[in-house]
Design brief:
Strand order of the largest sheet: 2-3-5-8
Largest sheet: 4 strands, antiparallel
Oligomer: single chain
Number of helices: 8
Shape: rod-shaped
Strand content: 5-15%
CATH topology: Outer membrane efflux proteins (OEP)
Helix content: 55-70%
CATH superfamily: Outer membrane efflux proteins (OEP)
Order of helices and strands: HEHHEEHHEHEEEEHH
CATH class: Mainly Alpha
Structural class: alpha+beta
Distance between the termini: 51 Å
Number of strands: 8
Length: about 425
């Protein structure tokens, strides 16, 4: 029994050393801020937004300008040359619609960034509150450990004086060892969630929650399922409908004719009749002119097919929006019921169970020390009190997680 106790003590001390000696202290606001600053997924989202904003400058795209030179005997036996500049231009409506599409795509990437940000904050809150919960539970277990140590001392003394039995002493020591085991396991849980936090924050050292007593997180949003309309995922999908509409407009604009403009400058070596008079023009005299035209999409079957495909895509996205909204509303209603359940449980503990537990603990300690009750009654009372306090912490953590879930569903930081 002594060897087992020594092993538990050593393992408990070793498991706690790195946290207290090398940990970085932080609260929830600092954790969220560091995660938003260092998270790689958000950096990717930032680059995507920058790319979209840069692409907006390409909306007024002009096709390449053609420069052609022609030389030869195209007018006479003399060697003439022709220099032509030509440019194809879309109608202004095409540029406008392309610009609107790029703006919509930029807004879409910004909303996509908000989705990633909302999910990241959600994960940080979960990990932080779980680490906070296990840290609070560690303090309760340490308090339990102290009580059971006193129980072991008292039972040992009663056994030595002949008032107690070996069974009483052994039982007390076993219960004390069980608490030490729970301390070790709980410390491991703290490490699990602080490591998860460390990963989310891209921190290079261990983390230590600075908040002391575990607090109840208050619900600061409406309990109406309509709140999910603010969810970033739903807003993003609605934006995709707009993007698709702009894309259809662009595809339709490509069915419009393009303008073509050209300017030529050439020589026409030879004699020309001007107002009844013959006049010779050499290679140094240049003739020039302009040409305008329209490029009409006569063979537009493929382009019309792309328009039809985009219209079908729009119906698909609209269906996704409806499905996502119903799914989010269902998840919100379920989360509300979870919240109400844990809220009622907390009210029971806060108004009744915790007060009764404190009273039972005080009375049981006095009665056991005075010999009014035996070790069995005291052990049962002590177990009941500590179980009540432990269950309260578990209920409080479940309540906080329910609130965090609701905040995530409505996209609240």
């Amino acid at each position: 029994m002594k060897k087992i106790k020594l092993i538990f003590h050593i393992s408990l001390i070793i498991s706690q050393l790195p946290i207290f000696l090398f940990a970085q202290d932080l609260n929830l606001a600092q954790a969220i801020g560091q995660a938003l600053q260092n998270n790689r997924a958000l950096k990717v989202g930032t680059y995507e937004i920058e790319i979209s904003k840069t692409l907006q400058k390409s909306a007024l795209e002009v096709a390449k300008t053609n420069f052609t030179w022609l030389g030869g005997q195209y007018n006479s036996l003399n060697f003439d040359n022709n220099f032509t500049i030509s440019q194809a231009l879309p109608l202004p409506a095409v540029w406008h619609r392309q610009s609107e599409l790029y703006k919509a795509q930029t807004q879409s990437n910004e909303l996509k960034y908000q989705i990633t940000q909302n999910e990241l904050i959600y994960q940080v809150k979960i990990a932080y509150y779980y680490a906070w919960y296990f840290q609070a539970r560690q303090k309760l277990l340490q308090k339990s450990d102290s009580l059971y140590r006193e129980f072991v001392k008292a039972s040992s003394l009663r056994f030595k004086t002949g008032e107690g039995t070996l069974l009483e002493q052994t039982t007390a020591e076993s219960q004390a060892l069980e608490i030490q085991l729970q301390l070790t396991q709980n410390q491991a849980n703290i490490r699990i969630y602080t490591t998860q936090l460390q990963t989310l924050l891209h921190a290079t050292q261990d983390l230590q929650i600075t908040d002391n007593q575990l607090l109840k997180k208050e619900l600061q949003i409406s309990e109406s399922p309509e709140q999910v309309s603010q969810n970033p995922l739903l807003t993003y999908l609605k934006q995709q409908i707009l993007v698709n509409e702009k894309s259809i407009a662009v595809e339709k604009s490509r069915l419009l004719p393009d303008l073509s403009l050209s300017y030529f400058n050439q020589s026409l070596i030879g004699t020309q009749n001007l107002k009844g008079q013959e006049r010779f023009f050499g290679s140094n005299y240049r003739f020039q002119g302009f040409q305008m035209g329209l490029a009409v999409p006569i063979w537009a079957k493929a382009q019309r097919a792309r328009v039809q495909a985009s219209q079908i895509q729009e119906k698909l996205i609209e269906t996704q929006v409806e499905l996502t909204q119903k799914t989010l509303q269902g998840a919100f209603e379920q989360a509300i019921q979870e919240y109400l359940k844990f809220k009622a449980g907390l009210e029971y503990y806060e108004q009744n169970a915790l007060k009764n537990a404190d009273l039972i603990l005080v009375q049981a300690c006095k009665a056991y020390q005075s010999g009014e009750i035996g070790y069995l009654e005291y052990s049962q009372a002590l177990h009941r009190v500590l179980s009540t306090q432990d269950n309260y912490l578990g209920m409080l953590n479940a309540h906080n997680q329910a609130v965090i879930r609701l905040e995530f569903l409505v996209g609240k930081d």
